[in-house]
Design a protein that fits this description.
- By secondary structure, the protein is α+β, with helices and mostly antiparallel strands.
- It is 40% helix and 10% strand.
- The strands form 2 sheets. Strands 5-3-4-6 form a 4-stranded mixed sheet, sandwiched between helices. Strands 1-2 form a two-stranded antiparallel ribbon.
- Strand 3 and strand 4 form a beta hairpin.
- It is globular and about 40 Å long.
- The two termini are 32 Å apart.
- The structure holds zinc ion.
- Zinc ion binds next to helix 6.
- The site of zinc ion (ZN) has 8 residues, from helix 6.
């Protein structure tokens, strides 16, 4: 089944989609097949339970099974969540109440445990109608699980969003190379990290990035700190 994903304008969903496109060597979000997404689960869970990656999950997916010390089989539990989300995925429709894609209805509410920068379930003023979480469809929530692959470590973690999807892909390919080295050497260090320790350095990073992407027209980018 394809026609599951489409760019949404939500930085975390789009970052996850871009990561999947690069990892699967695909062109458009709509071309991604459900079995291909499933084929990435093992790599994702392997990575997120590595000590350096797992440490970051406390700020990305707080209170999740990945970070709960009482959960012994973190890989198994996270794999279960990914498979549950995948089993709930349906193809894109023309409308829906998902706050990211707007093309499918949500099947459950999501909190900051599954979606970065979202409130907790008891933080009811944060959500529409006082619901215990945000309305994301399971496909968008699943895409978000891939977004840490392309986060940038800079003191805090940063999520890049650009109006030019090729720029996002070029950047995601750099992240994949960074991770491929970690897998090959079995020396896991976490998200893409060029040694910057302070988000103030982002201005330097961006001015350097602009020179790299200068040949691409009308590129803008936003950075979201996780
Ligand atoms: Zn959605």
């Amino acid at each position: 089944m394809n026609n599951i994903f489409t760019y949404t304008g939500n930085p975390f969903v789009d970052a996850g989609i871009t990561a999947m496109l690069v990892w699967l060597d695909k062109g458009k979000p709509e071309e991604i097949e459900d079995y291909e997404v499933k084929s990435l689960f093992s790599e994702l869970t392997d990575l997120y339970v590595q000590k350096s990656w797992n440490k970051m999950m406390y700020s990305v997916f707080p209170n999740s099974k990945l970070t709960n010390p009482s959960v012994k089989d973190k890989k198994g539990e996270y794999d279960k969540l990914l498979n549950e989300l995948l089993s709930e995925v349906v193809t894109l429709d023309s409308h829906g109440n998902c706050i990211a894609c707007g093309k499918r209805d949500s099947k459950r509410y999501f909190t900051k445990t599954q979606v970065p920068l979202t409130g907790t379930s008891d933080f009811i003023n944060f959500f529409s109608y006082g619901n215990g979480g945000a309305d994301y469809c399971s496909a968008c929530a699943l895409a978000i699980q891939f977004s840490p692959l392309v986060f940038y470590k800079c003191g805090n973690l940063v999520c890049l969003q650009s109006n030019n999807k090729e720029v996002e892909k070029i950047y995601a390919k750099k992240c994949k190379s960074f991770i491929d080295v970690q897998k090959a050497t079995k020396e896991y260090t976490g998200c893409n990290d060029e040694g910057y320790t302070n988000p103030v350095s982002l201005t330097k990073i961006w001015s350097r990035a602009k020179s790299v992407y200068a040949h691409l027209p009308h590129v803008t980018a936003s950075l979201f700190t996780v």
